[in-house]
């Protein structure tokens, strides 16, 4: 049996990330969003990220058994008690295997870290003066950090729509 997960520190944030990514996928052709499936990054690395977004025909593929093989362009993790694991072991695995963008939502600390892969190493991507992080891999994928941390999904989706229209 899996470890218990709190609604407030995992279930609700997870839902909000999926809503945000799913809305983006609905507006942009050629993308797939995944929720907790195994991702085969190699012979010894098969993580189950909370959420991911990838381009059809990009780095990640769906194999004959229905598994994801290769690195999705964006992985998001919801981290309450797993922050240390998500920001160290998982981060290194994702970095080493070429995941271009990696996002960790520290739900207990009300913080989001978003990393981009540059020259084989993750660099932290900071919000702009409006509190918005703009994906470098996916045009128009904008995240209103303050709004999502405050569970204001209307503002999150409004910012996303502005990004998509840009």
Mind explaining what this structure looks like?
The chain is α+β, with helices and mostly antiparallel strands and 166 residues long. It has one domain (7-165): tt1808, chain A, CATH 3.90.1570.10. It contains five helices and eleven strands; from the N terminus they run H-E-E-E-E-E-E-H-H-E-E-E-E-E-H-H. The strands form three sheets. It has a six-stranded mixed β-sheet. Strand 4 (61-62) and strand 5 form a beta hairpin. Helix 1 (7-27) packs parallel to helix 5 (153-165). It is globular and about 40 Å long. The mean pLDDT is 93.
Highlighted features:
alpha+beta, 11 strands, single chain, 5 helices, 166 residues, globular, 3-stranded mixed β-sheet, tt1808, chain A, 6-stranded mixed β-sheet
């Amino acid at each position: 049996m899996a470890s218990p997960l709190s609604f407030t520190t995992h279930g609700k944030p997870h839902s909000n990330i999926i809503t945000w990514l799913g809305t983006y996928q609905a507006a942009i052709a050629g993308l797939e969003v995944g929720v907790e499936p195994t991702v085969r990054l190699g012979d010894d690395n098969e993580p189950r990220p909370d959420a991911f977004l990838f381009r059809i025909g990009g780095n990640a593929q769906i194999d004959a058994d229905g598994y994801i093989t290769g690195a999705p362009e964006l992985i998001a993790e919801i981290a309450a008690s797993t922050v240390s694991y998500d920001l160290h072991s998982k981060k290194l695995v994702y970095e080493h295997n070429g995941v271009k963008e990696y996002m960790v939502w520290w739900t207990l600390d009300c913080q989001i870290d978003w990393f981009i892969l540059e020259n084989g190493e993750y660099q932290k991507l900071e919000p702009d003066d409006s509190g918005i992080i703009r994906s470098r891999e996916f045009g128009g994928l904008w995240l209103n950090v303050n709004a999502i941390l405050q569970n204001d999904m209307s503002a999150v989706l409004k910012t996303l729509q502005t990004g998509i229209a840009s």
